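Q: A reviewer asked whether we had any structural model of the full assembly, not just the individual parts. We don't, so I'm hoping you can provide one. Inputs are below.
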Amino acid sequence: MSKLQPVRGTHDIYGDDARRMRHVVETFARVASTYGFEELATPIFEFTEVFKRPLGEASDIVSKEMYSFRDRGDEELTLRPEFTAGVARAFISGGMQQSTPCRFMSWGPVFRYERPQKGRYRQFHQLNAECLGPSDPATDVDMIALGYRTLMELGVAGDVVLNLNTLGDPDSRNAYRSALVEYFSDHRDALSEDSQRRLLTNPLRILDSKIEGDQAIVVGAPKLSGYLNDQSRDFFRTVTNGLERAGVPFVHNERLVRGLDYYTHTAFEFITEILGAQGTVIGGGRYDGLIKKLGGPPVAGVGWAGGIERLAMMLAETPTAVRPVFFLPMGDAALLEGFKICEELRGAGITVIADRTGNISKRMNRANKASARAALILGDDELSAGTIMVKNLDSGDQQQISIDGLAKHLKAQG
Ligand code: ATP
Ligand code: MG
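A: Here is a predicted structure for the entire assembly that you could use as a starting point for your response.
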């Protein structure tokens, strides 16, 4: 029955995939903590306005990718298509402008109605980092360095190139926007239908078009660097100098624009060649106008989001699970006493799987299949002597160990 399949573009995550994704999240959380980030978990759904207002009706996300619905109380709600708007909403709701700078790390599922393919899903997962408050370019350097260090710790930095650009301040951006509209209007008929629409709504997005015909026209488009005012130029220079000093390699990519309306100044993407078409693993930038646009105070912000599935696919190896010890009680008395023994071992931090059914060879097979490091065999004789047989499954060595010293013995063995 097709209704028993997961919905198109969604997945059950388990086994190696789950382990890889967990490793990505844990690595990010550990690295971000070293930059002073605190966890912020916002709700998975928000009032639709929270996304519509900052992202803009014209954005791809709002115009065609959101999962929006009315709930039973007739509220217009949307499953989050990204984190930033919800984080900004939480900042406003919580009156956090008193406590800036706020450094927030988050992770979890994100929903977009897109055409599913490798590395592109309808429910996927993101890492997210935001710094709210500071408007100085040094903060942009820190945020990008956090992304780079996360990639280094994951062992994938060598396969990723940081593409960096500036969109300038609103004045520079508007001047550039006019120049782009003029240029693309002259080539209107050759543009794709999507890009013709963007010409009216969001002309910068045409630069981002993945369609070949559009790209040919984009090559001749005016460059943003010609429209930057002095402040915007200085801002960008401080960012590039800082990145060089921090040891974060980058390329200046003048074609890089972020798909969302609220970006100013710094825009960046970490891009890899090894995932095929879906090569952007982290994207972000500065969004000084966002919180105001959402109805809050004029507070600056800079942040990024990373695709957990894409990062997980890049890992060279699947992180290995902890090797358990198998507890094999023989007989009723051992089974009962085993509850106490196993609890004590787990309390000492040892991973124990109690395998209580079937004959001994079946149980040993299961222990080997689970890559157990040891089997603990407890029979009536051992029980009355206060000992347990510990079989090292790598070496095959067997030893009688006193039950009192069992946790210590297993810990010493690794
Ligand atoms: P793309 O250009 O690939 O559509 P985007 O600009 O829409 O990316 P962002 O909104 O910046 O992406 O999201 C941040 C990151 O989330 C991306 O760099 C990517 O790694 C990941 N991502 C975005 N959309 C998807 C998706 N549909 N499925 C899986 N991962 C995604
Ligand atoms: Mg997208």
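A: Points you may want to mention in the reply: The mean pLDDT is 94. The chain is about 40% helix and 20% strand.
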